[in-house]
Specification:
The protein has helices at residues 3-24, 29-34, 36-44, 71-81, 121-135, 153-164, 185-188, 194-200, 213-226, 260-274, and strands at residues 62-65, 141-146, 170-176, 179-180, 183-184, 204-209, 232-237. The chain is of the alpha/beta class. The protein has one domain: Rossmann fold. Strands 1-2-3-7-6 form a five-stranded parallel β-sheet, sandwiched between helices. A two-stranded antiparallel sheet has the order 4-5. Helix 9 links the parallel strand 6 (204-209) and strand 7 (232-237). Helix 1 packs across helix 3, helix 1 (3-24) packs antiparallel against helix 10 and helix 3 runs parallel beside helix 4. The protein is globular, with a radius of gyration of 17 Å. The mean pLDDT is 97.
Length: 275
Amino acid sequence: MDSRSLESRARDIRIDIVSMIAEAGSGHPGGSLSCADILTALYFGGVMKHDPADPQMAGRDWFFLAKGHAAPALYATLAHAGYFPTDELATLRKLGTRLQGHPDSSMVPGVEVSTGSLGQGLSIAAGTAAGLALDGEAGCVFALLGDGECEEGQVWEAAMFAAHRKLGNLVAIVDNNGLQIDGKITDVCSPEDLGAKFAAFGWEVTHVDGHDLGALVEVLGAAKAAGGDVPHAVIARTVKGKGVSFMENQAGWHGKAPNAEQLQTALADLQAARA
């Protein structure tokens, strides 16, 4: 896809995010909106090797949503990629749905592992990358973490393990929007400087504007192609609630659904960006 097509896709994903959360009456819009461009770059920018017709394809790239509460962003991305019908998005969090509040790998095609317990995703990704390396199999493993999630000690155990095992087939992406459920990450329990921390653990680090789709495709593609014996961390500076005027940079929209009136405002904001 070219840049304009990628931007259009990201807007459609954001429209689905706010619509499905409003329909459900619960969910996490802020962090879902902030990572929509990252997911768009991975799935539609030619970065990841994947096949919706064969989600378990040998030699595929793997994606783990460590920040599992951003499931609406992953669901919308997978639906637009063809893993399941887009009209199923309206069933988010409803009784009997496949689309639970956190991703369930036993029900949703394209979801590699159930996530939601913060801090564990990078460990799972590192273990998968190590397994692929031991078996001599192709495939890059991508893990998307929240910056608040990086306050969890297990993240840094995984970082230490990945560098020790020389996992050049592992790419950690941090959705660095600066906010978590209780406020600014710098006020709650600051993990900054994230790039310096990953570098100290022996990772190659790249910083990128997390809403610049061209830059995301370039940086993520380069991290995948680099391979080698050093894991790669991409620190993506983003805006929580990106694209919706009243949600942007507001910690209060971490886990709250818009009402009907707020939904119309959100949709108007996103539609205006499309024009």
